[in-house]
Design a protein that fits this description.
This protein is 45% helix and 15% strand. It contains 7 helices and 6 strands, in the order ααβααβαββββαα. The strands form 2 sheets. Strands 2-1-3-4 form a 4-stranded mixed β-sheet, with helices on both faces. A two-stranded antiparallel ribbon has the order 5-6. Strand 3 (114-118) and strand 4 (124-127) form a beta hairpin. The longest helix has 18 residues, at 2-19.
């Protein structure tokens, strides 16, 4: 009887583990891998917080990957994502530690997409906040999210210019592509 019970328990465990969902990588692991790659390729890290339900996050990804500006982003940034703010049914998609990382960078009350740009050593260089003149990065601002309006796109370009060196042609292409997000 004990053998039969043990066999049943073993089979139940095997079946349940086959259906178990893999845990996504942790925020720390994502950052470690990205910084390692950025260091090897002499790039910065562009981190975007997103969720499966977020339409603006999808627009941001589409813009970054658009043929008109993809080469610029791929040449200058290691682009990574962390999943946050999922619905109850999709909490398993979230990266462990990502919400805490978002809170650490004051993006938890800002909506998504929220993005950060780090140098290859992990120093924060830019974030997706528009701030009043003279306000430092230690304070939250208004989240650009996926830039679409003129002021948002201009601020996005300014942040790209502080973290890379886009040409005038690249600036124009990025500006034109992101302004398409208004529709």
């Amino acid at each position: 009887m004990k053998l039969k019970t043990a066999l049943i328990l073993f089979l139940l465990l095997a079946v349940s583990s086959a259906y178990a969902q893999d845990t996504p990588p942790s925020a720390d692991d994502i950052m470690k891998e990205a910084l390692k790659k950025a260091s090897a390729e002499n790039k910065s890290v562009f981190l975007m917080f997103h969720a499966s339900w977020c339409g603006w996050c999808k627009k941001m990804d589409a813009s970054l990957n658009d043929e008109t500006c993809k080469d610029f982003f791929d040449s200058n940034y290691v682009i990574i994502h962390m999943v946050v703010k999922e619905s109850k049914d999709n909490k398993h998609l979230e990266n462990p530690g990502a919400e805490e990382f978002l809170v650490k960078h004051k993006g938890d009350k800002s909506g998504i997409p929220f993005w950060l740009i780090f140098d290859k050593k992990g120093t924060l260089m830019a974030d997706s906040f528009i701030r009043a003149e003279g306000v430092g990065m230690d304070q939250a601002g208004s989240n650009i999210g996926c830039p679409a309006q003129d002021d948002e796109v201009a601020e996005f370009i300014a942040k790209l210019k502080t973290t890379s060196s886009p040409t005038k042609e690249e600036e124009a292409a990025i500006t034109a592509r992101f302004k398409k997000n208004r529709n």
